[in-house]
Amino acid sequence: MQLTMTGEYAIRAMLHLASLPPGDSTQITEIASLWEIPENILRKIISQLAKAQLIFTQRGIGGGIRLAQPADKLTLLDVIEAVEGKIYLTKCLIGPDFCSRTSWCAVHLVWCEAQQKMKEILSSKSLAELVAINDFRKSQVQSLSSSQANGLNNIELNYS
Amino acid sequence: MQLTMTGEYAIRAMLHLASLPPGDSTQITEIASLWEIPENILRKIISQLAKAQLIFTQRGIGGGIRLAQPADKLTLLDVIEAVEGKIYLTKCLIGPDFCSRTSWCAVHLVWCEAQQKMKEILSSKSLAELVAINDFRKSQVQSLSSSQANGLNNIELNYS
DNA sequence: GCCAAATGAGAGTTTTTTAGTCACCTTTGA
DNA sequence: TCAAAGGTGACTAAAAAACTCTCATTTGGC
Q1: Is A151 contained in some domain?
Q2: Is residue A144 part of a domain?
Q3: A46 touches strand D (CB under 7 A)
Q4: Which residue in A17, A63, A108, B148 has its CB near the most CB atoms, within 10 A?
Q5: CB of A5 under 7 A from strand C?
Q6: Chain B contacts of A121, Cβ < 8 Å?
Q7: Dihedral Cα A131, A137, A141, A147, nearest 10 deg
């Protein structure tokens, strides 16, 4: 019940691409070193993202990768589903074969609702928006830590 | 990113217990055969549910298991967390050690929201309510299939 | 006290999934 | 033709999940 490293890495890479000026490209090795991703693994992830048509790739000298769609049209859900396949919170949501009780089971309905809501939230913000929020919050963290001597309150994080 | 069989089995067992008259108990073997659960596995799950104080167990002749709390106070979230531990949709939601960017990362916030919403939905209905819905829907399915010759529309299932 | 019926618990196995590695292939521009 | 980029498949290692087996413990009734 957890995002895999593949999904995690894909998100990092796409977020990096989304932070570049539109149309700009970069290299796999660059992303791998900046975002702590094993290069061989990133290669395969990039290949999957290209097959899902989220990015363009170009081989050879001067080549690299870049977004195939505007950063404000892409969401976390797009990225995750591109590398992990469609999200199914339970096996019974894949299809009616898993469980003979699906036709009347109330638990199925609850999972269905949870899954739908989760997809909604994962697609509620574009990569462009996420990059913008990051930039803003990063600058906040910096100004906070530089004025740490003042004892200003830190940013609140929620590990419920 | 999916419920394990352990969680699935635990839910089946708890739903069965919740469907009994309050205070009634039953045996592991009974639940295992009724709900298609390997008995040895169910033993351990039952043991976990007991440690989490969701059920009472009693050994010996005439023993068995029963709910330790009223069925309308228990939710799917209780059951899942009892056997699978707390739900964390990503590693960075477990704690700040996984990722150095947590303090400002917008993706973290989105996952946080998704996780919170998912927990909300999983605890929005009590086991008692789920049992009641099941009973109602089962009777609907039966009356539908007995009048199938009329070509009545079937219950709609959503595999988005 | 003994027996049978019930849960409890630990070690170990098998299977599946995830993560990562390695070696080599293909494309491409200078 | 070379070097720099991405592409691919086979493989291994590690972790998690699912399951099996065996024996221990508790308990009520005879």
Answers
A1: no
A2: no
A3: yes
A4: A17
A5: yes
A6: 110, 113-114, 117
A7: 130
A106 touches chain B (CB under 8 A): yes
CA of residue B27 to C1' of nucleotide C7, angstroms:
9
Owning domain of residue A86: 5-129
Q: How close is the nearest chain B Cα to the Cα of A48, in Å?
A: 19
Domain total in chain B: 1
Q: What single-letter amino acid sits at A62?
A: G
How much is the pTM?
0.90
Nucleotides of strand C lying closer than 7 angstroms to a protein CB: 4-10, 18-23, 26-30
Q: Give domain status of residue A153, yes or no.
A: no
Domain assignment present for A43: yes
pLDDT digit string (tens) for chain B, length 160 residues: 999 999 999 999 999 999 999 999 999 999 999 999 999 999 999 999 999 999 999 999 999 999 999 999 999 999 999 999 999 999 999 998 889 899 999 999 999 999 999 999 999 999 999 999 999 998 887 777 666 544 333 344 556 5
DSSP A43-85: HHHHHHHHHTTSEEEE-STT-EEEESS-TTT-BHHHHHHHHH-
